[in-house]
Automatic annotation (TrEMBL), chain A:
Keywords: Membrane, Oxidoreductase, Transmembrane, Transmembrane helix. It comes from Kiloniella spongiae. Gene3D superfamilies: NAD(P)-binding Rossmann-like Domain. This is Short-chain dehydrogenase. The keyword Oxidoreductase applies. GO terms for molecular function: oxidoreductase activity. Belongs to the short-chain dehydrogenases/reductases (SDR) family. The lineage of its organism: Bacteria, Pseudomonadati, Pseudomonadota, Alphaproteobacteria, Rhodospirillales. It comes from the Bacteria.
UniProtKB/TrEMBL annotation, chain B:
One of its GO terms (molecular function) is oxidoreductase activity. PROSITE patterns: FAD_PCMH. The keyword Phosphoprotein does not apply. Belongs to the oxygen-dependent FAD-linked oxidoreductase family. The keyword Glycoprotein does not apply. Keywords: FAD, Flavoprotein, Oxidoreductase. Residues 9-177 form the FAD-binding PCMH-type domain. Pfam families: FAD_binding_4. It comes from the Bacteria. This is FAD-linked oxidase.
Length: 245, 438
């Protein structure tokens, strides 16, 4: 029975992942903005078999001085084996291009707040010498593209941060998992028309849990995005700039 | 987006709404009050019952609320699937009291179709084990319904094909099981008469269904395998890894013809060597053999297929079934999966399909000849006092519907009382004359 803290627990990927943890009988602590939605999810996870489910309302953006808050959560949970960071927003690229505020706000939620959380938890995990930190980044962070580089920049920053953290925590035996989903059919992407590359949150969740179990470092979900992004990273600018990606 | 039912026929352009909560759904209804809606779960009804210009998907309404492990009563959202229920509850020793032949149906869909299973002769339909549900009606109000509370809306919604409103959540009763396994016994029947006699003889079996070879004629007409099942006490709770072979693309339609189906039928019948065969089998392959083959409907080709399931009263049994089977075998239209079952008593739901008698489910690839044959079958079914299953229907006429479902006027008056007419409508309800075309 693992003790798992999930931030952004109302996101579709986080919820699907929590359902797998629940079937295994884990102890869960869920954080997200909307307490009402959290309690609906908590009830569901209890029926599915979670040993215990705690929920607290938490807003990742704005305040980064959360040490006491997190310390209390860990105490309630009785320790921590897995931290799963899944919150984020998909900003509208066009409106970011027109507004400094939108751009910085998106970066704040998708990157700065993650750094703040990880700075605190890295020390906890380093001191206890075990456990897993899993964070949802994105394939969008692998190369800046005109269609979503504000989102991509934040996810890229998160990926680099995790890379460094993994380096630091390797000697403590702590797993740091960077999750890079491709297109996922969730309420966050409801307005997109979906093609063959789109995956379901349940599928992403299974791959996340498998990567956690196998102590992976970086996982593309589904796997084929590793190949796609390798090609996208290798395409020279003079060709890339002719695309509308 | 272009959508269709499970038979891939017909298809229609639809705007899909994906409300993430009951509140969001209420707002959807208010926003778009000029349009007509139909709720859709996993899209397993075969024809046009879940098609409309605006479709409300219940895919994000999929949470469990509570479970009482004394009584087996489960409360959950309408978008929760039987697949999910099986994954969570079989290891705890519980099983749906009634399950259709696929695990990929939602609780809301199972209520709207009032689905039945191989144990209908013992326990009735899915809705006979629904204690209550909440439904959002056209005005935006939410009603609690049960056999005693708002009974009129309960009776119209159970089997009502989503035409009264959107079911939000429900309380259903699960049954206790001792293991994940079924003791299956298969009997060979040389013809229809033998098969029906075996059904009567073994009516005490928990589950019973017969696969029937529709291409045989004369003395072999209705050659079949009767498969009985009882929950086993042995084997423990085992999660069988779900089989995941898949038909990757639509097969050319000509691949299914009377020769290929005839060959399949002979192999399938011949596979069972002994007169009686016993197996200890996992519930997965027993109840959901086709779920193991993703997109199996593609076997029927790009034009899709139609299912045809009817029931005729018990006293019409042998004679009526013989008449239908003769018609089919003469036509040579191969039905790949032909399933015969004896129904127990019906219930009070206004549009529920099952009543005491014999039911046969057939499928045919879409072609002009198929539609001609089905029109002829309609006449026979009607002459014997039968009806056709709305969940599988894609082509029945309004006249055939009205004759088969004498309570349709009572159903329509409940819809009027709750403001549903014209608001909750499907291509099927328009075809059947329950709603008008715009």
């Amino acid at each position: 029975m693992k003790k798992i803290l999930i931030i952004g627990a109302t996101s579709a990927i986080a919820e699907a992942t929590a359902r797998i943890f629940a079937l295994r009988g884990d102890n869960l602590f869920l954080l997200a903005r909307d307490q009402e939605r959290l309690s609906v999810i908590a009830n569901d996870l209890k029926v599915r078999g979670a040993n215990d489910v705690h929920t607290w309302a938490y807003n990742a953006s704005g305040q980064h001085d959360n040490e006491t808050f997190f310390a209390n959560a860990i105490e309630q949970l009785g320790g921590i084996d897995i931290l799963f960071v899944a919150h984020g927003i998909l900003p509208d690229q066009k409106s970011c291009e027109a507004s400094v505020e939108h751009t910085l706000n998106a970066f704040e939620i998708n990157a700065t707040s993650v750094f703040a959380i990880l700075t605190y938890f890295a020390n906890i995990f380093e001191a206890q010498n075990h456990g897993s930190i899993a964070v949802i980044s994105s394939v969008a962070g692998d190369r800046g593209r005109q269609s979503n580089y504000v989102y991509g920049a934040a996810k890229g920053a998160v990926s680099i941060f995790l890379q460094g953290l993994r380096h630091r925590l390797a000697k403590s035996g702590v797993q740091v998992l960077t999750i890079k989903p491709g297109f996922v059919d969730t309420p966050m992407t409801a307005s997109f028309s979906k093609g063959a590359l789109w995956a379901k949150p349940e599928q992403i969740a299974r791959l996340i849990v498998r990567a956690l179990d196998r102590k992976k470092s970086v996982v593309y979900t589904p796997w084929f995005w590793g190949g796609i992004m390798l090609i996208i990273r290798l395409v020279p600018d003079w060709i890339f700039h002719k695309t509308r990606l | 987006m272009l959508i269709s039912g499970w038979g891939q026929y017909p298809d229609a352009e639809a705007e899909i709404l994906n409300p993430v909560s009951g509140d969001a759904l209420q707002r959807n209804l208010q926003d778009e009050d000029a349009k007509s809606f139909i709720a859709r779960g996993l899209g397993r009804s075969y024809g046009d019952s879940s098609l409309s210009s605006t479709v409300i998907s219940t895919k994000y309404l999929n949470r469990f609320h509570s479970f009482d492990d004394e009584t087996g009563i489960l409360s959950c959202d309408a978008g929760v699937s039987l697949d999910d229920i099986l994954d969570v509850f079989v290891p705890k020793g519980w099983f749906p009291t009634v399950t259709p032949g696929t695990r990929f149906v939602t609780v809301g869909g199972a209520i709207a179709s009032d689905v039945h299973g191989k144990n209908h002769h013992n326990v009735g339909t899915f809705c006979d084990h629904v204690l209550s549900f909440r439904i959002l009606i056209a005005s935006g109000e939410i009603f609690n319904c049960s056999p005693s509370e708002n009974r009129d809306l309960f009776l119209a919604t159970c089997g009502g094909m989503g035409l009264t409103g959107v079911i939000l959540d429900a309380s259903i009763r699960l049954q206790k099981i001792e293991s994940s396994f079924i003791e299956e016994t298969t009997y060979k029947a040389a013809n229809l008469k033998e098969c029906l006699e075996l059904f009567t003889e073994y009516r005490s079996a928990t589950y019973s269904v017969a696969w029937i070879d529709c291409l045989k004629q004369g003395k072999e007409l209705g050659r079949s395998l009767l498969m009985l099942g009882n929950h086993s006490e042995k084997g423990g709770y085992v999660d069988l890894k779900k089989a995941t072979s898949s038909i990757p693309f639509n097969m050319p339609g000509f691949c299914l013809n009377k020769y290929s189906v005839g060959a399949f039928n002979s192999l399938y019948y011949g596979r069972v060597r002994a007169q009686i065969q016993e197996r200890h089998v996992h519930y997965g392959p027993y109840f959901y053999p086709l779920d193991g083959i993703g997109n199996w409907t593609r076997l029927y080709g790009a034009k899709g297929f139609v299912q045809y399931q009817f029931v005729i009263p018990k006293d019409a049994g042998l004679e009526g079934m013989t008449c239908v089977l003769e018609k089919i075998s003469q036509s040579g239209a191969g039905s790949f999966l032909s399933v015969l079952k004896v129904f127990g008593k019906g219930n009070d739901n206004l549009l529920s399909f099952p009543f005491e008698g014999y039911t046969l489910a057939l499928d045919f690839k879409v072609s002009p000849r198929t539609f001609e044959l089905l029109d002829q079958l309609d006449v026979i079914v009607h002459d014997y006092g039968g009806r056709i299953y709305l969940t599988k229907d894609a082509r029945m006429s309004d006249r055939v519907f009205q004759k088969g479902y004498p309570e349709w006027e009572a159903f329509q008056s409940v819809r009027e009382r709750y403001g549903a007419v014209g608001i909750f409508a499907s291509l099927q309800s328009k075809r059947l004359g329950l709603d008008v075309e715009h």
